[in-house]
Amino acid sequence: MDNSPQLFQYILSGLSNGAIYALIGFGFAIIYNATGIINFAQGEFVMLGGMLTLFFLVLLSFPLIPAIVLAILISTIIGIAFERLAIRPLKNAPHLSIVIITIGASILIRGISMLVWGKDTHAIPAFSGNEPLYIAGATILPQHIWIFAITLLIIAANKIFFNY
Questions:
Q1: CA within 20 to 30 Å of 26's CA: 1, 49, 120, 157, which one?
Q2: CA distances to 51, 72, 122, 125 from 105, in Å
């Protein structure tokens, strides 16, 4: 029995999920290099951006690009407010204090999000269609190709930005 298509399917799925995790890890690295702080609320800020995008797309019927831009803008404003109100005043405090603050922010954002959007999983509607592409016996949604391509583009742009 030839398991090549199944293996390729796992590889494609792994690349798509890995691209999202790479962006989150990339965010950790940028924040740590810029501030010297490990932000344990980073994942919740990513989740907040996704949930806000879903809110604007599904409940308010915004087009995709404005929904994403608005979600990024609101998440950024919340992140800046968090830094100015909770992190900056503790600039000279022990690192453990800042770690505890970021863990607290993580719990707060997660808790508020569960109150607002519930505990169920949510999915952003496919923006490139629901018709899968077939590649060497494996299937992949066009949205996953976008995710992978955008991840590569962001990493390349940041490499250029930080090296020049």
A1: 120
A2: 17, 18, 22, 28
